Structures are given as structure tokens and as C-alpha cells.
Amino acid sequence: MKIAFYGSSLLSSWWNGAATYYRGLLRDLAGRGYDITFYEPDAYERQQHRDMEPQPWAKSVVYPATTDGLRHVLAEAFAADIVIKASGVGVFDDELIAGIIENARPGALKIFWDVDAAATLDEMRHSADHPVRDALKSLDLVLTYGGGPPVVEAYEGFGASRCVPVYNALDPTTHHPVEPDPRFAADLSFLGNRLPDRESRVEQFFLEAAASSPDRSFLIGGNGWESKAMPENVRHLGHVFTTEHNAFNCTPLAVLNIARDSMANIGFSPATRVFEAAGAAACLITDAWEGIELFLEPGEEVLVARDGKDVAEHVRSLTTERAREIGDAALRRVLAEHTYAHRGGQVDALLREEMASRLEEVAA
Questions:
Q1: What is the phi/psi pair of residue 141, to 5°?
Q2: Do 239 and 330 share a domain, yes or no?
Q3: Which alpha helices (DSSP H) does the chain contain, by range?
Q4: How confident is the model at residue 265 (pLDDT cuts 50, 70, 90)?
Q5: Do the domain assignments include residue 74?
Q6: pTM of the model
């Protein structure tokens, strides 16, 4: 089956946290026999900051971020059996969601894949004519990056015929233990871009912990933090390429995950970083959110913090041996239950079920 996938970027993780999610899932689906074309706009300097070249498991089409460029790639949707529009492309999002419905051939499966469901749903609650809300009646399936039962109920309440969370996971061929790298030495490290709905939580969980622990070293990676005032014991790296994530996670005593406001509030939304860190056998500290135990067991496979005080206490009490035990346990758990092979199998079953249902309707 042919998939036409319209997303932010497969080739670049520059201001594009969904890149590793797309890569893990689509590579697995390609291995199951899907013929995939990924359409991404030339925008936000992503093509100038590629961290992956086009791969044999997906045809990459980079189109000009212009009306003509958009028109050209949408016309190609007609050749696909499955047409997918992801959230957060960054340019022409409204036109893309309407365009896949207009250009998909009769009988094709039309899907909206929301990689920031909590934020999208909040927008829809405040806008009766939101483009996604308008499109739901014409879509066959909504898939989400996470969110659990609250997101499913909300989407189906807005009129989605079916909504299924497909959580982040580990690609063990990409994220795995490596030798430590002195560039990333620290007691606690955090990796994430500076975003409006994340910054206050970074202040609370990371910067406050650093300020209260002057004898400890802290490291922050990601775009946008260079202008942020920070304690003297915090070192800023700037953008950390995907190829460096393993060393970033393996080197410090512990790494910190901080959910964005919307994801923390709704729960059941583990960030990509959770699985990347666990895959590298890192000792992970995460802010508290509902549903964490579905992915990692608190106290055994992950440490959970309610605030910066808890983060600082975890760092002070950690020994190298204890950190290694937690990291090793996390790696065992994600390899057993949370790889992209697990997620790819889930999506494959969903797509085949939906396509079979469509054929039955036509036959009837």
C-alpha cells in the first residue's frame, strides 16, 4: 500500500522534535511492505540543518513553501492508498488538512496524525471553525502522539470517527548505550528547545534545582536558551544533533525530562526524550504526569519529581551505581514493550483493519 505523508520534516530535527518519531514509525512500516513518500516544506532552515539524508525506506520530497509548491505535492495524494496529514507542519497547515481531503482518491484512507494533541484540542475548544474540527467529519482516522483516554474522548467528542494514540517509542538501532563523551559531562542534563509552553516548567524543574545545588553541574541543550539567564553552574550547548543524543544521555549522572504544559496537564504523553534516554540506559528523572507507570516503573526504572526541590534531592542522593541500576532497568523495559517495532505493528494492524472495513462497505 502507498502512503503519502505530509509532515514537518523527516530529514531534519531542527526545531522539529517529531523527527525521530516519524523516522522510527515509518522505517518500521516500510519494512512491513508500505511504499512511503514523505512531503516536507523547505522552511525554518531545516534543510540547512539536516541530520539525516534521504533513506531507502521512504522517498523524501522537499517542496518550496509556496502556493505552487503546495499545489504540486497535494496533487500527488491521488496516487496513494493512505493519505496522512501531520500536525505542526508549520506552513500551510490549514491548506494541507483541507487539501488531503480534496485530493485523495475515492476509497483512500484519510488520516490526521496529531503530534501535539493537547494543544490542538485546546485550539479547537476555542474555535468552532477550526480547520481540523471542520475536517473531522471527512477523515477516517485520527492518530495521536499520545494523550491516552482524555485525548480519545475529546477527539471523538468533536466528531472523529475513531481516535487511537500511538505513543513514542525506542528505535534501538538509533538510540543505544555508547561510551561517555566529556563534552556532555554533568550531574544533570536536560535537552529540549525553548518553547513558550515549556519555559516556566524548565525554570521550575531544572533551573531552580540548579540554583539550589551550587556544588553540582548542570547542562542544557536545545535551541533558544542562549538569551536565558541561568545559574553559573548551568552550561548551555545550543542545538544537539540527533547523532549526538546517545552520548548526551550516556555521559551525565542523570538526565531530566520536562513535559510541556499541555502534555503534563493531560498526561499519558511521554516525550521522545523519555525513550531515547531509556534506550541509552540513562538514569532518567521526569516531572510527574499521569500514566508514567504504563511506560516506566517509578522508583525502579525512572525517578519522578513533583518540583525542582525533588529534582535536586534526586541528584544529591544518586550514586553512580544506583543511576546505572535505574538506567539498565529502563532499557530492559523499553526493549521488551516500547520499541518502534511494537508501535509499527500497532499502526499496521490499524491501517489494515480500516482498509478492510472500507472494502466491506464498498462491497455492501
A1: -160, 140
A2: yes
A3: 19-31, 67-75, 93-103, 117-125, 131-135, 148-157, 196-202, 208-211, 245-250, 261-266, 272-279, 308-317, 320-337, 340-363
A4: confident
A5: yes
A6: 0.91
Nearest-CA neighbor of 214 among 253, 187, 189? 187
Quote the domain boundaries for residue 20. 2-169+340-363
User: Do the bridges between strand 188-191 and strand 254-257 make them parallel or antiparallel, or are there none, so unpaired?
Assistant: parallel
Is 175 part of any domain? no
pLDDT of residue 262: 74
Question: Is it the case that residue 221 has pLDDT exceeding 90?
Answer: yes
Same domain, 158 and 199: no
CA-nearest of 18, 14, 11 to 114 is 18
- Within a domain: 30: yes
State the DSSP string of 136-197. GGG-SEEEESS-HHHHHHHHHHTT-S-EEE----B-TTTS------GGG--SEEEE----HH
| 278 plus 319 within the same structural domain | yes
* 361 pLDDT higher than 80: no
Residues 327, 249 contacting (CB under 8 angstroms):
no
Left, alpha or beta for 328 (phi > 0: left; psi -120 to 50: alpha)? alpha
Q: Does residue 362 register a pLDDT over 70?
A: no
Q: Is residue 78 part of a domain?
A: yes
Predicted confidence band of residue 261 (pLDDT cuts 50, 70, 90): confident
Residues 6+ apart with CB under 8 A from 81: 1, 2, 3, 108, 109, 355
Average pLDDT, the chain: 95
Q: Are residues 153 and 240 in the same domain?
A: no
Give the model's pLDDT for residue 316.
97
Look at 184-188, 287-291, 308-312, 337-341 and tell me which has the smallest mean pLDDT: 287-291
329 and 344 in one domain? Answer: no
What is the pLDDT averaged over residues 92-112? 97
